[in-house]
Design brief:
Number of helices: 10
Helix content: over 70%
Number of domains: 1
Radius of gyration: 19 Å
Strand content: under 5%
Largest sheet: none
Structural class: mainly alpha
Distance between the termini: 10 Å
Order of helices and strands: HHHHHHHHHH
Length: 227
C-alpha cells in the first residue's frame, strides 16, 4: 500500500505541475482580462491549451478506476470498475496525439509551449503506465505466462485503436455506452476499407508501442525511486 500511495502522490504532483504551467501561461502571456474565463469559445480554442486540462482528467480516470477496483468490496463492482478501466485506458496515451496542436503562437514563447506540451504528454504517459501496472498488480499479470503475453499483445494495440477512434473519428469513450450502434457502424466501415484498415493498424502499433514504452519506463523509474 505504501508504493500505491507514492504513485498516487506522483500522479497528483504531475497533474498539478501541468495545471500550473497552463494557468501561468494564460495569466502571464495573454492580455489579462478576467472575462475571458467565462468566454467559452475562447477557452475551448487551442490558443489557451485548456484542452489539456480535460484530456488529463480523462487520462487520470483509468488509474482512478483500477485503484478503486483494488479496494472494491464485491467482485461485480470490481469487474465493473475494471471494465471502465479498459474503456478509458486509451485516454492516457491519447494525450500524446495532442502534439498536433503544437505550433508557434502570438504572445507565448515557443519554448514555453514545448515545455508545457512535453509535461502534459509525459503526464498522460505516466498515468497510463501507472494504470497498467496497477491492473497487473491487482490481477496478478506480472508473471510472463502465455496468457499474459496474449493479454499484453491485445491490450496495447487496442489502446492504439481507441486513440484512432478518438483522434480521427472523434468518438469519446462513453459513446460506446451511449451510442454503441453508431460506434460499431463506424468500426464496420473501417473493416471494409483497406486504406482505413492500414491506418488503423499503424495507429494500433504506433500508439500501442508508445504505451508499452511508457509502462516500461514507469516501471523502471519506480524501481529507481524505490516505489
Amino acid at each position: 500500500m505504501k508504493s500505491l500511495k507514492k504513485s498516487d502522490s506522483l500522479a497528483l504532483t504531475s497533474l498539478a505541475i501541468c495545471a500550473s504551467l497552463i494557468l501561468f501561461r494564460f495569466f502571464h502571456f495573454h492580455p489579462t482580462d478576467w472575462r475571458l474565463l467565462i468566454d467559452f469559445p475562447f477557452i475551448r480554442s487551442g490558443n489557451t491549451l485548456f484542452f489539456f486540462g480535460w484530456n488529463l482528467i480523462l487520462a487520470a480516470l483509468p488509474y482512478l478506476f483500477i485503484r478503486l477496483a483494488e479496494t472494491a468490496s464485491s467482485k461485480i463492482f470490481r469487474y465493473t470498475l475494471t471494465a471502465f478501466w479498459l474503456l478509458f485506458l486509451p485516454n492516457a496515451p491519447y494525450v500524446i496525439s495532442d502534439v498536433i496542436h503544437l505550433r508557434p503562437r502570438a504572445h507565448v514563447p515557443y519554448w514555453y509551449d514545448v515545455l508545457t506540451f512535453a509535461s502534459c504528454m509525459g503526464t498522460g504517459l505516466l498515468l497510463g503506465g501507472w494504470a497498467v501496472l496497477a491492473a497487473a498488480r491487482s490481477y496478478g499479470w506480472r508473471s510472463w505466462s502465455s496468457r499474459n503475453k496474449w493479454l499484453s499483445g491485445l491490450l496495447f494495440p487496442l489502446c492504439g485503436f481507441g486513440i484512432y477512434l478518438g483522434r480521427v473519428l472523434r468518438w469519446n469513450s462513453w459513446d460506446l455506452l451511449t451510442r454503441p450502434m453508431a460506434v460499431f457502424q463506424d468500426i464496420g466501415s473501417i473493416m471494409t476499407n483497406k486504406v482505413a484498415m492500414f491506418t488503423v493498424c499503424i495507429y494500433g502499433l504506433a500508439y500501442g508501442l508508445v504505451l508499452l514504452l511508457g509502462v516500461v519506463a514507469t516501471k523502471k523509474a519506480a524501481k529507481v525511486m524505490g516505489y
